[in-house]
Design goal:
alpha/beta, 14 helices, globular, binds glycine
């Protein structure tokens, strides 16, 4: 197990990365939560149905924690609606949870966004912990305290900053995680290499060549490196006043594609397309060297991720860029990569982005 501290003053916590048995996971969660008066175990419903690992952990938490009750959430992104969050809060009230209670989110990134948001708003805020079961959830949503839900108008348009008390990234869950989901999570790992830690990109490429990418040791190292990078960014800028925005690389068009696709595409698949578009836009503005896009495209293609952006550059998809939560008036803070590990934030007019992305890629 690797333990990574997240130093945020009185909101500090630890991220534990490893393969945990239920006893160990239960102890790490209960140690961090103390002695809550009740616990809402908000769990991805499909995971709960299918994963013996999750079932054993939930049963143990119910034994060890006072008034612990489990609620099965709609699977995946379907739980990130305001009505689903309201249903969880209503259920928590029906369970009699008071201000001494806590929430544990068990599942991927959507589950931890939902669980953290419910914890942030229930009784104006109670503690929560995250047991992350997907690669994407581990390297992105679980760390940094962004919680929230989607609106029909767009992704993550409501939310709150609410730091967890502890995060467990259980690599043992990869045994049953579909390869498509692992690959989609690796899109965010590629992003980590592009925006901050070039060694991550080098390692992915090496593992792709020698066929070792999906070996547990390789995934462990890449997940740990990516979480380290995220911790470094979020502790330098917890509330996204500046630097944290680099984590949005590939997300302006990525989110637009994801919501236009009705969440048929996985988040990482949409981000794969969004990163290709962002690299092309960087070339047009003279920020990104032309050799970088083919290099990144080759890695993403090798991962089986979508890279053909042109079919997505329809007016209805481009219009969704207007509801990007980073928009200020007619501009958005856009992330350009100059070299792996070196990026630039620039205020760009959305209309210019739309025009240029079509010119570059259609
Ligand atoms: N997922 C982007 C962030 O945590 O800031």
């Amino acid at each position: 197990m690797t333990t990574l501290p997240v130093p945020l003053g009185n909101r500090s916590y630890q991220v534990h990365v490893g393969t945990f048995d239920a006893e160990q996971a239960c102890r790490l969660l209960t140690d961090a939560l103390g002695a809550p008066t009740g616990v809402a175990l908000l769990t991805d419903g499909r995971l709960l149905e299918r994963s013996a690992r999750a079932q054993t952990l939930v049963a143990l938490l119910q034994q060890r924690l006072r008034n612990a009750a489990v609620l099965a959430l709609p699977a995946g992104e379907a739980c990130k609606t305001m009505s689903a969050v309201e249903a969880s809060c209503q259920w928590m009230a029906e369970q009699g949870l008071d201000r001494g209670a806590a929430v544990v989110g068990i599942g991927g990134g959507a589950t931890s966004d939902h669980a953290g948001f419910a914890a942030a708003i229930y009784l104006r805020g109670i503690p929560f912990a995250t047991y992350s079961t997907t690669l994407l959830g581990m390297v992105d949503a679980a760390v940094g305290g962004k919680t929230g839900a989607d609106l029909p108008a767009g992704k993550n348009l409501v939310g709150a900053f609410h730091q967890p008390r502890v995060v467990l990234a259980d690599l043992g869950c990869f045994e049953t995680l579909p390869r498509r989901e692992i690959a989609a999570g690796l899109a965010e790992v590629v992003k980590a290499g592009l925006i901050a830690t070039p060694a991550i990109l080098d390692r992915i490429e090496r593992h792709l060549v020698d066929g070792t990418l999906y070996e547990p040791a390789a995934l462990d190292e890449l997940v740990t490196m990516s979480i380290r990078m995220k911790i470094d960014v979020v502790t330098s800028d917890e509330r996204e006043a500046g630097r944290r925005a680099i984590l949005n690389f590939g997300h302006t068009l990525g989110h637009a594609i994801e919501s236009a696709a009705g969440y048929e595409l996985l988040h990482g698949e949409a981000v794969s397309l969004g990163m290709i578009a962002a690299l092309a836009l960087g070339e047009i503005r003279g920020h990104t060297p032309r050799q970088l896009r083919p290099r990144v495209r080759a890695a993403l293609e090798h991962l089986g991720l979508p890279v053909d952006v042109a079919p997505w550059l329809r007016p209805d998809v481009l219009a969704r860029m207007d509801v990007d939560k980073k928009r200020r008036s007619d501009r958005v803070k856009f992330v350009f990569v100059r070299q792996p590990g070196d990026c630039l934030l620039e205020d760009v007019r959305l209309d210019d982005l739309k025009r240029d992305v079509v010119a570059a890629l259609v």
